[in-house]
């Protein structure tokens, strides 16, 4: 057993369930997403994969903050396993993930990272387990999915770009959903004096694959300080004008 796994087990022993009711599904609260997800939200007893649209730093940050927002809306402590020390804690906080909820573990390689994630999922005392890898085979993701099943700990695995021409989601996976996240032009602030000012950041959100449902893509405003996404005003207003049921809403 590696020293990292031993240290993680010691940390997990100090974590107990908080008695909160844990929902089997975590909805986004945005009709553009929940209405097209087979489970009307993200299943908590499952593995979900996320990749940046490109290796560009802005897309990579968008994918990381997308995961942070999901983890922020989960029910309890969050284990985040890293390979490199490039997480920006203030950025995670701005996406709703408070520092006191985070438990970090550093892995020497992808194999150890996946083992640490599996250990965290089997503990059952965490709200979310997050990890970032460059490579994970089908067998690896199947182990994570099996570890998550029967619990209420959502598993979020970011597939990072190993090189420019490699699609991180090209390798088959047992994940229930697979997402591609990229930055998009922000919405200008309203008002005459702020016509050229940048508003809330936007992301291009693409669900590449989901079990029991169809893929889709949409534009959403980035996570706010509570981890909630929102439909951009111009899209929400278009739905309202056309008589649609969805109004501007947050996750």
Automatic annotation (TrEMBL):
Top-rank taxon: Bacteria
InterPro entries, alphabetized: ImuA, P-loop_NTPase
Protein name, UniProt field: Protein ImuA
Organism from which the protein derives: Sphingomonas immobilis
């Amino acid at each position: 057993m590696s020293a990292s796994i031993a240290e993680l087990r010691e940390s997990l022993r100090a974590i107990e369930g908080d008695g909160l009711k844990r929902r089997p599904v975590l909805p986004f609260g945005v009709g553009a997403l929940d209405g097209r997800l087979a489970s009307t939200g993200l299943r908590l007893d499952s593995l979900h994969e996320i990749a940046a649209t490109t290796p560009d730093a802005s897309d990579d940050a968008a994918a990381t903050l997308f995961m942070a927002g999901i983890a922020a809306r989960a029910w309890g402590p969050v284990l985040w396993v890293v390979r490199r020390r490039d997480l920006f804690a203030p950025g995670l906080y701005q996406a709703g993930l408070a520092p006191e909820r985070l438990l970090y573990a550093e892995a020497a390689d992808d194999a150890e990272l996946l083992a640490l994630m599996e250990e965290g999922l089997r503990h059952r005392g965490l709200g979310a387990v997050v990890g970032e890898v460059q490579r994970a085979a089908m067998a690896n993701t199947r182990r994570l999915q099996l570890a998550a099943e029967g619990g209420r700990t959502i598993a979020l695995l970011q597939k990072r770009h190993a090189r420019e021409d490699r699609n991180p989601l090209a390798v088959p996976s047992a994940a229930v959903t697979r997402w591609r996240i990229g930055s998009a032009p922000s919405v200008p602030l309203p008002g005459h004096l702020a016509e050229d000012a940048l508003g809330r950041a936007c992301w291009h959100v693409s669900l590449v694959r989901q079990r029991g449902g169809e893929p889709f893509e949409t534009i959403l405003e980035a996570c706010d300080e509570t981890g909630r996404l929102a439909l951009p005003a111009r899209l929400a207003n278009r739905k309202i004008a056309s008589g649609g049921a969805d109004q501007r809403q947050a996750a």
